[in-house]
Write a structure and sequence with these properties.
The chain is of the alpha+beta class. It has two domains: about 30-40 and about 160-240, Protein of unknown function (DUF541), domain 1 (Translation Initiation Factor IF3), CATH 3.30.110.170; about 45-155, Protein of unknown function (DUF541), domain 2 (Alpha-Beta Plaits), CATH 3.30.70. Helix content is about 35%, strand content about 35%. The chain contains five helices and eleven strands. It has helices at about 1-25, 60-80, 125-130, 135-140, 160-185; strands at about 30-40, 45-55, 85-95, 110-120, 145, 155, 190-200, 200-205, 210-215, 220, 230-240. The strands form three sheets. Strands 2, 3, 4, 5 and 6 form a five-stranded antiparallel β-sheet that branches. Strands 1, 7, 8 and 11 form a four-stranded antiparallel β-sheet that branches. It has a two-stranded antiparallel ribbon with strand order 9-10.
């Protein structure tokens, strides 16, 4: 009986030893991250322009908003914007007396007439320039209003596929450099690549901060305000070591 028990312990020890040997052999790997970052210039812009007129005469208010629209269209086209890049969006009339709750202090005007157009252009430099010259519209009697939940001008980068291969290659090379440096310091030899996974690409404004607070409790998208962007990607790679 003692011999059988001893044999059982011996076999059990053999199995454990083989398992540990297999674990050590398969676990001899390192995991490294490779990073790539590239600064790019936006290639597309979206400029939303809202005009507003207040009046006690709806017909008069509508007529004025149309006149302002024509002035705005003239300003844009004479400045180099192509007509097909200008898109009519929302037209809205607010009647203060038609609200569910009418305030005693609703101001001197009954009607608020709003109109918005959108300029969509690849000429980002021109949009950046014109969006800073809206004082010319004010001088012409055109009243502009701010967008409630997004910036008036958005700069976008839409050519990510053009730079993806180069950035992934650079991130992979950086990961391998980190792995080689680790093996040199650890006195081991770098083996084969076992596994690689790509993180998500991110596109942020060049001077990106965690959140862009508007100051009134709302938040704007922090990655559409700057013409220049930073594109980033991280890859995770496992190498065997010998």
């Amino acid at each position: 009986m003692a011999a059988i028990v001893a044999l059982g312990f011996a076999l059990n020890g053999l199995f454990i030893g083989k398992s540990l040997e297999k674990f050590k052999r398969e676990d001899r790997k390192i995991s490294v991250k490779g990073f790539s970052e590239k600064e790019v210039k936006s290639n597309f812009s979206v400029w939303t322009i809202k005009t507003r007129v207040t009046s006690n005469d709806l017909l008069e208010g509508t007529k004025t908003i149309e006149e302002n629209k024509e002035k705005l269209f003239q300003f844009l086209t004479e400045s180099g914007i192509q007509p097909h890049e200008i898109i009519q969006q929302n037209f809205n009339v607010t009647d203060k007396l038609a609200r569910d709750y009418v305030s005693n202090d609703m101001g001197p005007f009954r009607y608020i007439v709003d109109n918005s157009i959108q300029v969509r252009s690849e000429n980002v430099d021109l949009i950046a320039k014109l969006s800073k010259q809206t004082d010319k519209l004010f001088k012409a009697g055109v009243m502009l209003t701010e967008n409630d939940y997004s910036p008036n001008v958005k700069f976008l980068y839409t050519r990510l596929n053009d730079i993806k291969p180069q950035m992934l290659s650079e991130a992979t090379q950086n990961a391998k450099k980190a792995a080689i440096e680790f093996t040199k310091e650890s006195g081991v030899k770098l083996g084969k690549l076992q596994r690689a996974s790509q993180g998500l690409f991110s596109i942020v404004d060049r001077d990106y901060s965690v959140m862009a607070n508007t100051g009134d409790g709302g938040f704007f998208d922090p990655n559409v305000n700057d013409i220049y962007k930073k594109v980033k990607v991280v890859v995770n790679i496992d190498y065997s070591i010998e």
